């Protein structure tokens, strides 16, 4: 910086203002400093300015989902978050590590980022205490069991599942089964908070109408969806509708039903929840579905952390958005 | 560092060895230094050590694909690259910006990363000259028109398409159409080098057997795949086989053919190239397909840049891997 200052005939402080944008200088001075920087091959140095200013223009998106086969919806979240960060003048880097505290601590210690956005939040998410302790601004796309005192935006799975169930009940369906997913090999490993809340909303709704819940869990692949069908038809022959929160298995379920001579929607109604319209269009009939508000939640989640960076005193956004109903051809009244 | 050295009763150099891992110290000394760091709340500072050592343990994956709806295969590349970086002790951050030189220059100027891996490489990729000029170690997953003097690993699309064509020609197919994709709204905008090489391999093979190429381009969605079918049947009624390099349109093409009463594979054979087995299983019949060697190429691409970081004098890997043939049910001899 001293070289640049001497070369441009200005003070080191002035060079610092220009480099770090910490204070306005006249266009002439700006031009002189920039010319000197070019001539001396002085590259604006993030590491240096991060130390100088104690902040960077980088956000981390913590998404352990990368460890498994990311769904169309998960991809939508990441894409939109990256877009929004750019719009706000930040760079979004993906931190594709597990939900353990250690992976967050390495991020915090690195001092590389000005803030973090967490995805795939668990009910008891080990990343959250580590972040709260660090003081690093962060927001959740999702919710822990008790998100008090944090900035979070989440899909309103409760309302979305209740709405989906009301649609099916309104058509006369009474035996409605619910299909969600398994993370990894352990059927009990799935603690993704949204999945737990959605499942509970289904169970509560079934009980509220005097029905008994039929819970089916399926790995997130189309061939597992095909295999699920024989189990469904053998164990629950009276089921007339499926609520599927498993967008990779859903097309397989449709194919498995067709192979078994079960017509959709005449013999079996299917609603795919929290998916994308592209995933819903991979089958014939096109799946009646609800679309996860990925674009809005990513925007709100990124805004939440950037707003905290700019003003830690701002009120904490705590926002629920429902899935949006989308048309399809896979729902009809139950066969009488 | 001086504080830590005094507190631990060791030299500043010793603290530096521990912090930057630049030299082994005895377990006792290590423990003393780490205790002092804890007591003083000294966080290992990436920005500082980056300046001190002139390097970081971060790699950037430059993947403009995030700007569009990323395919299952693209996701596989990113997932595997992140895994491999972790195995080699590096963190992989996603740099989801366009293929313009400016987005690379901001990365270079930031000095945040030790190296870069480029994906979605174009024939004349503006990122490459910027990186070569900078001296930042990088590798390509893909290839420019002339990749001489660079570290690259790529799908051998030429061999893969030629092999796929040989299979269809061997079964007796002569009228074989080729479906690839359109990036953005401009049909001519797709300059993804792999797409160009694959298309040319198809054209050359058709000409080599005295056939005339039938090129169809389709946006990467299942509904565009459905719409493509009517165009195909109207303009090219004698086509008996499709080579599809468009994994999101392929399921739509199968559905469109079924809706038009065209049986797969009895009336029309389909091979989906450069996809994943999950995408191929979304349809009935399951698509005969070739699987992109995403796992191997990501591993090799990440290794290539890390090896350059550790030893700039190492020979440049230049590796081609073919797609792997995978079984399916969508190919048969042409209807006689």
UniProtKB/TrEMBL annotation, chains A, B:
Keywords per UniProt: DNA-binding, Transcription, Transcription regulation
Residue ranges occupied by any HTH lacI-type domain in the UniProt entry: 1-53
SUPFAM superfamilies, A to Z: lambda repressor-like DNA-binding domains, Periplasmic binding protein-like I
Signal peptide residue numbers: none
Short name of any one Pfam family annotated for the protein: LacI
Coiled-coil regions, chain positions: none
Gene3D superfamilies membership: 3.40.50.2300, lambda repressor-like DNA-binding domains
InterPro entries named among the record's database cross-references: HTH_LacI, LacI/GalR-like_sensor, Lambda_DNA-bd_dom_sf, Peripla_BP_I
Entry GO MF terms: DNA-binding transcription factor activity; transcription cis-regulatory region binding
DNA-binding is among the record's keywords: yes
Transmembrane residue ranges: none
Protein known as: HTH lacI-type domain-containing protein
């Amino acid at each position: 910086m001293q070289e640049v200052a001497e070369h441009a005939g200005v003070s080191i402080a002035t060079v610092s203002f220009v480099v770090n944008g910490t204070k306005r200088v006249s266009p002439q001075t700006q031009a002189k400093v920039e010319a000197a920087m070019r001539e001396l091959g002085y590259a604006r140095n993030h590491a240096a300015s991060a130390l100088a200013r104690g902040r960077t223009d980088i956000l981390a998106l913590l998404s352990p989902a990368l460890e498994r086969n990311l769904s169309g919806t998960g991809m939508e979240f990441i894409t939109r978050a990256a877009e929004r960060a750019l719009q706000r003048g930040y760079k979004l880097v993906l931190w594709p590590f597990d939900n353990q505290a250690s992976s967050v601590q390495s991020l915090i210690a690195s001092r590389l980022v000005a803030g973090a956005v967490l995805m795939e939040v668990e009910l008891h998410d080990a990343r959250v205490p580590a972040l709260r302790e660090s003081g690093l601004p962060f927001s959740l796309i999702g919710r822990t069991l008790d998100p008090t005192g944090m900035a979070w935006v989440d899909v309103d799975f409760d309302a979305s599942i209740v709405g989906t169930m009301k649609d099916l009940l309104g058509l006369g369906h009474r035996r409605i089964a619910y299909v969600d997913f398994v993370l990894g090999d352990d059927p009990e490993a799935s603690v993704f908070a949204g999945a737990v809340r959605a499942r509970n909303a289904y169970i509560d709704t079934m009980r509220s109408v005097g029905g008994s819940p039929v819970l089916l869990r399926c790995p997130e692949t189309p061939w597992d969806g095909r295999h699920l069908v024989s189990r469904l038809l053998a164990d629950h022959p009276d089921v007339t509708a499926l609520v599927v929160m498993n967008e990779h298995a859903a097309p397989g379920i449709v194919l498995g039903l067709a192979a078994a001579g079960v017509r959709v929607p005449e013999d079996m109604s299917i609603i795919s929840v929290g998916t994308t319209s592209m995933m819903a269009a991979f089958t014939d009939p096109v799946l009646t579905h609800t679309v996860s508000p990925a674009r809005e939640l990513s925007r709100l989640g990124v805004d939440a952390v950037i707003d905290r960076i700019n003003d830690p005193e701002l009120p904490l956004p705590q926002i629920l958005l429902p899935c949006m109903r989308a048309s399809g051809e896979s729902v009809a009244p139950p066969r009488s």
